[in-house]
Amino acid sequence: MNPVRLLIFSPIPEEGASARFRVYQYLPALEQDGFEVTVSPFCTPELFRILYDRGHVARKLALGLRQLLQQCRALTRASRYDLVLVHREVLPIGPPVIERILARSRHVPLVYDFDDAIYLSNVSDANRLMARLKVPRKVPAVIRESSLVIAGNNYLAAYARRYNSAVTVVPTCVDTKVFRPRPETARSSEPPVVGWIGSPTTRRYLLELGPTLARVAASDRFRLLVSGAGAAVTLDRVPVSNVPWSLRDEAPLFSGCDIGIYPLPDSEWTRGKCGFKAIQFMACGVPVVASAVGVNREIVEDGVNGFLASTPTEWEDKLGRLLSDPALRSRLGRAGRETVEARYSLATHAPTLTKTLRGTLNGTR
């Protein structure tokens, strides 16, 4: 059997969670199934590191122009491939010029994958000027012209079906051999560690939860571990440890917590999220308290494999219960792990993805 030559475009490198868990972690399974995969990310690791920092304008422009040329060179070679997959977008700014060229090539089918409500405007505080250059309306245009659309959850799939009937859902998932619980004997943190692991764009959701965490800290001792916020976080009356995020230490960061928190406001943007931080905590056997928003209500069954919270009072109550009851933490943690193994594991969804891509290729031919 001849290998299937697959070209994947992504706006971000492996250091970005979206690309890491929707592209890069699938590469071994794709290659084992006979795919020859080339990934062409727009951002280099260096550009991705400074992208959410204020300033660095000249360096961002220089690196961005260089990567623009790289993506254009990749476009000229696209006809050598059997299949092209675009994860989110080829370029983080501007109209969908490259995507349209790819879609209108009748020889190479285009698959479009997205895992956020990127058809809405949502720009980080550090890059407000980029808002003028972003074109969220390009998303429906790309969806309309794709041979297949892969959405990260049912909410996004329903949006995509407005423009294309060829839509399937592949949830963002984890390799449960990498994200796994630490031994029960190692869970002896005193005080317990409450973990928030996010990104510069979600940092504000943690800050909004600060007053609630302070009220919890007044009655129950804990240490808040923060990683990935982009800048040090301090909260009034809450002991905070800011821990640098690294690709190598990602799984140990999650498994090293006693409780995970995943706060989100209820908005059209957050309803499009795939609940992935909750999934990562649960895979590590860490009980999670998550906002009752969007897909979180599908992932977390309140009181069974974690807790959902909609109000400050619910956050206080459920965090307090977990902090005061190690047995409850253990029970919910085990149930969360079982949920991920059954519904959100790489082992479950890798065969689905490879079969879906082959089906798209054969159907187009």
Gist?
This protein is α/β, with parallel strands linked by helices and 365 residues long. Helix content is 41%, strand content 15%.
Q: The CATH topology of the largest domain is what?
A: Rossmann fold
Report on the biggest sheet: 6 strands, parallel
**CATH-defined superfamily of the largest domain:** Glycogen Phosphorylase B
CATH architecture descriptor text of the largest domain: 3-Layer(aba) Sandwich
User: In total, how many domains does the architecture comprise?
Assistant: 2
Supply the number of helical segments.
16
Strand content: 15-25%
Distance between the termini: 16 Å
Topology diagram in text:
Layout: E1 4-10, H1 17-22, H2 27-32, E2 35-41, H3 45-51, H4 57-76, E3 83-87, H5 97-103, E4 110-114, H6 138-145, E5 148-151, H7 154-160, E6 167-169, E7 193-197, H8 203-208, H9 210-219, E8 223-227, E9 240-242, H10 250-255, E10 259-262, H11 268-271, H12 276-283, E11 288-291, H13 296-299, E12 307-309, H14 312-324, H15 326-343, H16 346-364
Parallel strand pairs: 1-2, 1-3, 3-4, 4-5, 5-6, 7-8, 7-10, 8-9, 10-11, 11-12
Helix pairs in contact: 9-14, 12-15
Can you put this structure into words, describing what you see?
With 365 residues, the chain is of the alpha/beta class. The chain folds into two domains: 4-173 and 346-364, Rossmann fold; 184-343, Glycogen Phosphorylase B (Rossmann fold). The protein is 41% helix and 15% strand. It has helices spanning 17-22, 27-32, 45-51, 57-76, 97-103, 138-145, 154-160, 203-208, 210-219, 250-255, 268-271, 276-283, 296-299, 312-324, 326-343, 346-364; strands at 4-10, 35-41, 83-87, 110-114, 148-151, 167-169, 193-197, 223-227, 240-242, 259-262, 288-291, 307-309. A six-stranded parallel beta sheet has the order 2-1-3-4-5-6, sandwiched between helices. It has a six-stranded parallel beta sheet with strand order 9-8-7-10-11-12, sandwiched between helices. Strand 5 (148-151), helix 7 and strand 6 form a beta-alpha-beta unit.
